[in-house]
Design a protein that fits this description.
Length: about 140
C-alpha cells in the first residue's frame, strides 16, 4: 500500500519540521491521504469498520507471501485519510510480530500529532492503531 506514497516516515517527519504552521501540515496530510487508493464499496463493511472513530474508517490487513502485511484503509474524512497514510508508513510491509512491537506513539509525538489533533481525532487514531495491532495479534494466534 505504501507504494502509492512517495515518501517515508522519516521524510514525512522532516517535511513536517520544514512546514511553517499546522495549517500547512494538515494540508500536507490531506495531500498524502489523497494519494491512497479508495477501498471498493464491497470492502466498506462493518467487518472492516474501525469503531471508535468519529469519521467512518475501514481497515483491512492482507497477508503477503513473505509473511508481511499490506494494509488497505479508507475514510470519508480528508484529514483522517491523511492519518491513515501515516499509519501505513508505520505499519505496512511489517510482519505481525513487528507490528505488535512498534510503538507508534513515538512517531506521532515526533510529528506533533499528539499535541495538535483534537481529542476526537486522537481517539480515532488510537482506535486505528488498536485495530491494526488486534489484527496482527489475531494473525499470530492463527499460526500458533
Amino acid at each position: 500500500m505504501t507504494r502509492f506514497l512517495d515518501t517515508t516516515l522519516d521524510e514525512l517527519i522532516e517535511n513536517f519540521e520544514y512546514l511553517g504552521d499546522w495549517e500547512e501540515r494538515f494540508a500536507y496530510l490531506i495531500e498524502l491521504g489523497k494519494k491512497l487508493p479508495s477501498l471498493a464499496e464491497t470492502e466498506m463493511t462493518d467487518e472492516h469498520r474501525v469503531h471508535g472513530c468519529q469519521a467512518s474508517v475501514w481497515l483491512r490487513m492482507l497477508p503477503q507471501a513473505d509473511g508481511r502485511f499490506d494494509i488497505h484503509a479508507d475514510s470519508d474524512a480528508f484529514i483522517v485519510k491523511g492519518l491513515i497514510a501515516v499509519l501505513l508508513l508505520i505499519y505496512c510491509g511489517k510482519t505481525a510480530g513487528e507490528i505488535l512491537d512498534i510503538d507508534s506513539t513515538a512517531a506521532f509525538a515526533r510529528l506533533g500529532l499528539d499535541k495538535h489533533l483534537s481529542p476526537t481525532r486522537r481517539n480515532g487514531l488510537h482506535s486505528m492503531v488498536s485495530r491494526v495491532k488486534a489484527l496482527a495479534g489475531d494473525a499470530i494466534a492463527q499460526i500458533s
